Amino acid sequence: MGYASWLYDAIIYIYALSLLFYFSDFMNASRRAKRIGAGLLIFVWVLQTVFLVTKLYANIGLPILSTFVYWLAFSWLLVTVSLVISRFFKIDYVVFFVNVISFAALALNFYSGTDNGEQYAVGQTTRELLYVHISLVLCAYAALTIGALLAGMYLFLHNRLKSKRWSQSIRRYPSLDTIERYADRAVIIGVPLLAMSLAVAATSLVVEGRLVLLLDWKVLTSFASLIAYIAYIYQRAVNNRPGQQLAKLYIFAFGMLILNLLTSSFSSFH
């Protein structure tokens, strides 16, 4: 446990230092600070990868899956996506805010005691289904989280441009069309993954004969979130709603996902 605690602290402190350099770039457009922050973030990713692989290897074949591993994988996935965005898409502010969310999730996970806390029971006949479900839903959450950040960025930039309040930081934002295009891509990736994860979850309940859990709060709010995203897609593709309205609908749909996560304690699912 001492070794694990040391590794927790190392990851958190290096991650925090990386965010400080990214914040310096955020405030003053410092290319040197950005390079240092990116280098530290890559080191954090390496440490997270080693730690996650070690945890997954230790849990191979066990009939349980801890929430600690679940949220560790979520944070690792966000860091991975942010590095890809930084390398290929050059949307600086998204990288910073994605990592703020990832850092918060990681810190809460490391120091909340979940490593020895809540666990998901995995039945022998449904173990593979649960692993597939968790893999899909983690990827969906990551994509939709980035999409929500882009939607928030769209509303902020639209408001600034409409009120003609210019600043040096505004010039570093991509265009509204670019933000909207990437938000759409996040939906294109996230919504099918979310739908597939829910399909796998429903299948596991049918296989286990626990059909009553299809009316569980977590299951119902998950499907409600999916319907909200489908409504966004419909308004985007069929009704051609303005970008500002679509961004608000996107954030509403993401808010339902957050509600789903925050109210998990009321659920009997998993």
Automatic annotation (TrEMBL):
GO terms for biological process: cytochrome complex assembly. GO terms for molecular function: heme binding. Keywords: Membrane, Transmembrane, Transmembrane helix. It comes from the Bacteria. The chain crosses the membrane at residues 6-24, 36-58, 64-86, 93-111, 131-157, 186-207, 219-237, 249-269. Signal peptide: none annotated. InterPro entries: Cyt_c_assembly, YpjD/HemX. It holds the Pfam family Cytochrom_C_asm. Residues 72-266 form the Cytochrome c assembly protein domain. GO terms for cellular component: plasma membrane. This is Cytochrome C assembly protein. It comes from Paenibacillus nanensis. The lineage of its organism: Bacteria, Bacillati, Bacillota, Bacilli, Bacillales.
